[in-house]
Write a structure and sequence with these properties.
binds zinc ion; 7 helices; disordered N terminus; about 35% strand; alpha+beta
Length: about 350
Amino acid sequence: MQERDFFENENKKETVTIKCAGCGANMVFDPETQMLKCPHCATVTDFEKSSKVLELDILSAFENAEVWKDDSSVYRCENCGAVVVLKVGETATGCPYCGTAHVVKSTELAGLKPNAVIPFTVTKETALENSKTWAKKKLFAPTKFKNNLHAEDFRGVYQPSFTFDSQTETIYQARLGTRHTRVVGSGKNRRTETYIVWRTVSGVYSDFFDDVLINADTAYSQSVLNKISPFDNGAIKTYDSEYLTGFMAKRSDRKIEDCWQDAKVCMDQAIKQRVLSRYHYHVVDYFRATTNHSNVTYKYVLLPLYLLNYRYNKKNYSVHVNGNTAKVVGKTPVSALRVLGVVGAVIGMIAIIGLISYFFA
Ligand SMILES: [Zn+2]
Ligand SMILES: [Zn+2]
């Protein structure tokens, strides 16, 4: 009975939208103060935060995972199909992935509830400033693109991800070669040739992996996530729906089992590198390894990103800004005119240098 009451209270707490004491507007999470702030009158109010993020046991992940309930509402983009989760009571105004406004409320389920969040610490204004600096350095980007970056087009979205910890023990065997040279032949045929000395090595290698980051959204690429990383893991907090206010979260559509398989591949690559770094070699014939994982834990973490979508010559481009470190990753359109201009300038320079050396050499 008591347990039931506890859960009911929990749900009640989650579904309350915090209103501004000054003017009654909905408060939203403010990256600068890390508090809830009123977008109209700037009143701030704090909420309880916890840095004690639980590492969850992977063995029980599939049965005990908590789901997002009535504390959230689900919206679907009619243009690109992206499904985002908002704090209940908030309305999606546009899609962070394609930039259109065709986002409608959906009856779909929100899926697994995150247990951790890296809150936004970067403001939209800083994201914009950094993007402008980044775009300025892009030699071939059209001026129209550089001048059309606006704060209101950036949308803050939490990207779903899993981090895995694992204690590994690897039994390995490898055949490694070192290159040597020797002088062969005599007289006119005397020459230096290269030969390889092979040896087989084997052993046991133990390691501990902390927070291997795997993307939990099929529509988002792991390589973009790797480029925009790292995120400051020291900033990680226990998930609370207050962090979501004023932002939205992409719904995860990847199974944790599949993400764990990806994490194992990442660890295998790291283990191979670390083992091989113990030896002196020039070539690898083969590397065979079997790794045993123990004490595997995971966190389901929301990562803060600002996304800006840009259409240029009927093609889509996007700029991604890390909402925790302000790092910018993206592709800019290429202006044919600017490429011609730069190529022309280079050819001109070469011609001038050629002429100068012709006349003065
Ligand atoms: Zn207010
Ligand atoms: Zn969309």
